[in-house]
Amino acid sequence: MFHELGEKSQAHTFPVFILKASCASKGKMTSMYSSLHDNYVSNKGRRTSCVTLAVVLGCLTVLGVILAIAVLERPAAPKDHETLPQDTEGDNSTHQCSMSLVESIPVHLKYKDNVTFGIPLEQVWEDLISVATKRVEVASFYWTLTGEDINVNTTSDILGKEILKRLEELPSRNVSVRLVSSIPTVKTNSTDLKILKQKGVQVRKVNFGRLTNGVLHSKFWIVDRKHVFIGSANMDWRALTQVKELGVVVYNCSSLANDLHKIFKSYWVMGLSNSSLPQPWPAEYDTDINKQHPLLVEEDNTTTSLYISGSPPSFCPRSRTQDLEAILSSISEAEKFVDVAVMEYFPAIFYEKPPKYWAVIDDAVRTAAFERKVKIRMLISCGRSSNPAMLPFLQSLASMNNPEHHISIQIKLYIIPVGNQSDIPFTRINHNKYMVTDKTAYIGTSNWAGDYFLTTAGVGLVVSKPTSQSARSTKTLWSQLKETFNRDWHSEYAVHLNQCRPNPDCALLR
């Protein structure tokens, strides 16, 4: 089902660009001509100078032809019927950004009184809508913000309905709203996007099935090109009340927001019906922020670095750190520990028929544990709809655990009790997708299977652990994520893989 396609865009000419190049070349030629003319007339006479000038002008003409050919053969930028806003807002020189962890805890999921949580997801979404003054851009796999969308009558969709209502009101406040979602997507009767279009919201669906044989699985917000949300939550009412989600909100960070917008823009132009993937992506999609050149951020007298990763490779310019590379480098650079919380873990390209073994991340985990004695803890979600095919892979990985030889790989299943919520499909699951090591924090939108990194659109935010002394007493994003993992790891909902018993709420244990 999943194959990576490499459709090439048709070559187009750029007459205005070439004209400017020709004019610039003409100016240089005129200047050189004048200088050479004066020199030769004064030293060798008019006839000698003319002959020499003819030779020089001939060489310059050949050079001009070569430059023109190079310009003509440059791949054309994806065209859009609308004028896209320019990425010039904000002060990109100061990077005084504010970052906070965001969470959604399902109803009836109780923790001990002394634990801490991230900012509630619904609060962050409402805040981003409230502060918007110019534009809101959202990427989501699918949209179901009301219970009626999935034929469920429940009061737990109230928060979703409120978010939908507030999004509807944005155009009346002269706030431009653009939304992208996926083709294909989950099968639903959602009317969200139809309602929003009627209110003046611009909507596009990207046919990833045609472009890459995958889906658009990214989930992020960009507000006024200054504020950003990235996380596991789709635009679904269940993400607010029935599914355990995790993300990060970054306020007042124009550099990061403008960089993420380049990814959004790639989705937007590929949402046109006649779009084709450019090879390579034009320069306007390049980034100056990546693993090699991260963005330095100061917050509460601490300094950290961060960058956004992306997938699939066919949607990334060469300057963009790919999502898989971000994960592999975080694992390979760890010296003490790697903690992972992810919904699905498959060392396979699972959605391709027939499935293929794909051990890239699995090998990195095993290598870290075996060769460098890095302590590995993995918290894998298990719900009623989880795929039992994960179990053998997890058991194989856990079998490497050998304290006598200082090999530590511990795996737990995180199981959310269904209780009286059984009438709501695809819920009561830990949807998190993050990793924290002794060096970095990674928050992504992809499950850990080959398809997500090869054919499916996703993004990740990689943040380094602050090294300053003052960071020890500061609630940095890294420390928040570390604390969140420990909270869940030691909770009653996390069960060691080798101690699991049959559980109707976990498909792996039935």
From TrEMBL:
InterPro entries (alphabetical): Diverse_PLD-related, PLDc_3, PLipase_D/transphosphatidylase
Protein's UniProt keywords contain Transmembrane helix: yes
SMART domains per the UniProt record, alphabetical: PLDc
Residue ranges annotated for the PLD phosphodiesterase domain, each copy included: 212-239, 426-452
Listed transmembrane segments: 50-72
Annotated Pfam families: PLDc, PLDc_3
Key words, A-Z: Membrane, Transmembrane, Transmembrane helix
GO terms, molecular function: catalytic activity
Superkingdom of the organism of origin: Eukaryota
UniProt similarity note: Belongs to the phospholipase D family.
Protein name: Phospholipase D family member 4
